[in-house]
Amino acid sequence: MTFRFDPASFGRAALLFVVLVLLATFGRNLGWVRSFFGDVLAVAWVYYVIRTFVRAKPVTAAAIAFACGAAVELTQYVLTRIDVQISNRLLRIVFGATPDWWDIVAYAMGAALVLVLESLSNRKKTR
Prior knowledge:
The protein is mostly helical. Helix content is 78%, strand content 3%.
């Protein structure tokens, strides 16, 4: 892995960030779209942030992005087990407050999604 700046990944990360902010602020009534799809997009966002600044294999970057999501979920689980409540509204929006195994599934789907998109992008480049 080496450091670099990739404008295309930066653009994708910026676009996903805007979508995630819109989901977090205006998606309150969207149910599973906000929660599950938001988690899928969050891992994709982390992936593109990594790819913006680090030259790494897509599988490696996707694994790191998935691990970040899993770490957030583990933190939520530990905090609920020791009965710590997240009272800060912004932290509750960003990190959530309730651990859920479906979130792990969403993170895995996000990692798989970016790998599929990278594969499709590489196919177009070789043609």
